[in-house]
Structure formats: C-alpha cells, structure tokens
Amino acid sequence: MVKDFETPESLIKGINLSIENAKTMFSCASQIMKLGHYGLANSLFILCCEESIKAFALYNHFLIDDNRDVTAIFKSHSEKLQILKEGFHLIRSETLAMEKSIKQAILELPNEEDHKIEKRARELQAENFKLFYESYTEDKKNREWWDSANIFKQNGFYVGYSDSKWTSPSHISLSQVEDTAFKAKLILGHVIQYQNPDILKFKSKR
After folding, report:
1. Which of 43, 44, 78, 186 could anchor a disulfide with 156, C-beta 3.0 to 4.6 Å?
2. Closest by alpha carbon to 145, among 55, 20, 59, 45?
3. 168 and 159 in contact (C-beta within 8 Å)?
4. pLDDT tens digits for 123-165?
5. DSSP secondary structure, 21-79, as one string
C-alpha cells in the first residue's frame, strides 16, 4: 500500500475497491449465517465493518485534502476499530435522521385526508423520538462492543483457551451474529453512497 495517492482518481479507486470488498464480505457472511455457522459469519461481518471504514476514512481524506498518512488504517485492526467506535454512533444517528426525512416527505403526498396526515404525523413523531432516544442510550453499549470487536472476530475464527475455559466459533449465538450483521449493514449502507461517479465534479465545486 502506497503512502501517498498520486491522483484523486487513485484515491477514489481505493474507495470503490474497499466498498466492493466489503459488499463481498457481507454477502458471504449472510450466506454462512444461513448455514448456521454463526462464529465464522460474525467474524466476516466484523471484517466487513473494517473494510467499510477504509472507504469512510479515504472519502473524508479525499474531501478535506488531509496530508496525514491515512493508510495507517490498512495496517492496524485497532486503528480501524477505533474509528468505528467513534463513528458508529454518528453514522447511526445520520441514518435515523435520513429515515425521518423520508417519512416526513411521504406525509407531504397530496392524496391523503388532513386528519389522516395529522394522525400519522403524531405517530411518526413518537416513533422518531423513540429512535433517537434509543440511539443515544445505545451509544455507551456500542462503544464497549467495539472495544471487544477484535476479540469477537478472533473467537469466530479459532478455537482458543483462556481463563481456564475453551472458546470456539460454535459458541457464538444467533443473536450475537444478528447484532453484528445490523452494525455491518448500517455502516456498509452508509459508505455505499460514496460510489458516486460525480464525486470529482462535486469536489471541484466546493
């Protein structure tokens, strides 16, 4: 991995390659989960998160012309997981805000009766409050999860022995892998938007 990107096009290529690889990991993990191999699927979902965060870092590096060595994220699992720890809550909150905007746009459709719109607006207001409340209360738990993500990933690949007990990929539960899959889907869904052919034009207008 080169330290400096010679052209913006080269940097964008790295973004796209990272996203495509993350998509492949997510797809493979989903199929493996269906087979009941939850440990291996869990590890691949975590790797999907790590690969997605490469695109996240490269994209921001591209937009702000950051001169720091962004390739550090290609060399260290802890570096990627630290970015995920700090960024996951922001990505989740942004996604929830987008969902809220979409729902509000739907409300503006002209073919609904006023009383139905008002009723649905109240329902959506309650739903959105609940979503944002959950987002903030989940933040601490999510940060703790990312602190242990590398251990979870190793446990999904290998049999181990520590603290006088065995660990095995078979010990990973369905609920655990579903939680990891949710995180991976959220992060991957966020970075996919960076695959925009007009990204260079967008930057030139800034």
Report:
1. 43
2. 45
3. yes
4. 655 555 455 445 545 555 666 777 788 889 999 999 999 889 9
5. HHHHHHHHHHHHHHTT-HHHHHHHHHHHHHHHHHHHHHHHHHHHT--S-GGGGGT-HHH
DSSP assigned state of 193: G
The number of angstroms, rounded, from the C-alpha of 1 to the middle of its chain's C-alpha atoms is: 23
Nearest alpha carbon to residue 146 among 74, 50, 56, 26: 50
With 0-12 / 13-18 / 19 or more C-beta atoms within 10 angstroms meaning exposed / middle / buried, residue 115 is: exposed
List the end-to-end C-alpha distance of the chain, in Å, as a whole number: 29
Q: What's the rounded Cα separation, in Å, for the pair 8 and 5?
A: 7
Domains, the chain, ranges and CATH? Answer: 8-88+149-204 (1.20.120)
What is the percent of the chain where pLDDT is above 70? 51
Q: Report residue 140 as tokens.
A: 């601490």
Whether the Cβ atoms of residue 184 and residue 33 lie closer than 8 Å to each other: no
Rg (CA), the chain: 20
